[in-house]
Structures
1.
Amino acid sequence: MSQIAIGQYIPGQSLIHRLDPRAKLLFVFAYMILVFFSNHLYSYTFLLAFTFVAMFLSRISLRIFLLALKPILFLIGFTMIFHLFLTKGGAVLIQLPIMTVYEEGLKQTVFISIRFILLVIMASLLTFTTSPMDLTDAFESLLKPFTRLGLPVHEFALMMSIALRFIPTLWDETEKIKKAQMARGADFESGNILRRAKSYIPVLIPLFISAFRRAEELALAMEARGYKGGEGRTKLRELHYTHYDVWLVIVFIGLCIGLWLLRR
Amino acid sequence: MAGTPFERHAIKELDLEIPSGSFVSILGQTGSGKSTLIQLIAGLLEPTSGTIQVGPYTLKQGGKQSADVRKHVGIVFQYPEHQLFEETVAKDIAFGPRNQGLTEKEIKKRVEMALEWVGLPSSFADRSPFQLSGGQMRRVALAGVLALAPDILILDEPTAGLDPQGKMDLLTLIHRLHRDQNMTVILVTHDMNEAAKYADYLFVLADGTCRLHGSPSEVFQKQKQLTALALDLPEITRLIHQLNQKVHPPIPTDLFTIDQLESYLLERLRKVENV
């Protein structure tokens, strides 16, 4: 793979890596809700500081976090502009002939962008420090109670892990087919969008065929090994909470209290 | 990927020359840099340093001649049947010539020529490539590359996954193309028997550099070096070595087909009887 993207797992041995994936997943989920309760410059600073500490503890370089933020910079910029010009309230800061920038608008602009950054960094922190396998296991384990309501939790988790497993495989396959068609004179770079999209047909058709073939082979291999769904199935790697996870709960409670005090 | 922990040199300090019109074979274990080398020659990868000369064209970093090189080099990847996509065999074979900008008439001629070269009857032209057998699909894919009328044909393990008869048929076909069309053939394989039987010249790669090269008889004499590179001798050479433990004078080791060995032994027998 040519670049580090949002969902990439970066192996490591840091404190954050060693947390139980279920605890991490729940924490990130709760933290994201928490971010929306923040409404004050102090509380945002508080959350930012916490996020920086978490980033530091993960021992993952800042550069990688910046790479993860890159794709959503556009979105942040877009919402910033909207808030800057369209939110009304408070004192007038800049008076332009076509629009006016209010104090409230500036405030919202800063808050919204911080909120975005906090959310993306936390979500990235989760995927950076948790292997896809652990993440699916965590999903399955957390959603297990819903099996009683008829939700196919195990199948869901299986689909997720298979999909994740095959991303690099299909990526390699795409590269290979692309090269083979390039050798036959296919051109993927010139022409307008429509032409370029059309030029990918000779890549997409073989890719779909091979994906279906792989799926069929995988299904056959699973059946041959006696796979019959999640019922009564034990796991090779079981998840265990450790005292670190207890600390995570305490940290979360600390965050809640801190935020509540700063909110007023 | 330069400068990241994922950086790896697939090829380094490699210097080799393939004469035009020859049939060479590139041997080596998985990960020895074979695939990278052929993709460089075909103009599909850009070298990070060094140059590749293909006929009049020079390939180097930032160079602009890779598109020209691709017009002259046909490359058949492993399991080429996985790249078929059209509704009919004829349309799929026509993909390359059409990209070259040929007229419909010329394209039709190329398709017929390619089908004939790979030994498929013209009745296959209107069938769907996905209803053919594995061996037939591979021939269609090969025809798709041959329809470009390349001067250089590169094949990456073309016989992988075929039965022994299919393997032999395919290689005979390639050898005939080489002989009749004067096509330069670069065959990547790790089957010593194929290399010994068809190639005029061998290159043995390991860890991204060329460790041994020479004619088959030269290369296969260096048994110790080959074993050190985890490569085997061709079956026939091993047989001759075994026979030589019993017979004197020894049988020459530059015989690479059963027919050659048979006629040599018959002649030798005749001489002995005449004495």
2.
Amino acid sequence: MKNLLPLFLLILILYSCTDCGPQKELTVGINFNRGKDSLHLKKIEAMGALDQQIFKKQVEDFNTSRPFPDLSLPISLNADSTTYIFEFQNRVDTLTLFYKRDFHYKDHCGFVTDTKSPGTWRNSKSTFSEVNVSYESYLRRDITLVSSSGGHGISVNISL
Amino acid sequence: MRALIILVVMNLTWINGSAQKIYSTPVYLGLDIVKGIPSYILPDQYFIRKTVIIEPYVRFNTQKTRRSMLIGAGFASGNSKTDTALQISNQKFQGVYFKVGFEKKNRTRPMSIGIGPILSIAGFKGNYHFKGATFGDYNATFYDKKNIAFGAEGYMTYDLPLNKKFSLRFLARSVIAMRTRGTISPDYYPGIGHTRYMQKFLVSGGFTTQLFFRCK
């Protein structure tokens, strides 16, 4: 029996699990290519948002935290695009992010929410000089007790 | 010659008489009288709500001693109890099913055991919901139609005669079935029973009471 114990542990560690994803409003990670303190955000707003509270918190972290954090902004589950307005010290920019919502049923999870690339040539529309959007599933893959892959969702890299 | 004819006639009469004794086929008509009732009486406690279940049966003896055959059909339509664990609320189901049972009676007691195939065709409908703290909640409806499940049902019964014509049958049953089509995990599968969190392979069981009427 003692000899089987490591085997059981190995099976347990390698045992594959299912990730159900966030199962709530999804967020997008936004990274700005910025220098030291050159960027000061005054305000972020989202079109159609019922509650702007989360954006205030994000602005605060963006201006005060070191090292510079990425923004983590919610996207709308009720539309295939979300528009944000970024108010800086000396400029105002808009970013409309396009995605395709994917609600589907997954065994042992029930309904899960995920996004995909919009499938059109345009991923975003913005007044920023450059916006790169990468799409990945919000559901992690190949999960064991010690590792997993994916699950990062939508990431946006912005150059002013 | 006359004696031979009399002998043949007597023989045929005896065979016929014996045949009637051996192959007598009382036919019973039955109806499940319990399955849907708890969903109306105890809607908060029971796992289904306001569910109509109509399950008629025909039962008759076969040529073998102590053996009988049961043919049943059923219709179920109702709701399962709200469970937000899978983001689903208010799962509705509707289905028809057919079953056959081959029964063997106990020698001394009014009890039988039976086994037979079951086929169920069902559809499910419901709402699912995701919380959206910033932009508002997302609500949608899903349809999971044309589900087919087939399997086997085994059961034990106790028959309680009420009078010459009517009898009650208390029944304990268990079912295993495979779903050939369908996406969502049904809370209740018509004809099979409680199947929450089961996907392709369904296992269920329960107790019920049926009322039988001897018509022949």
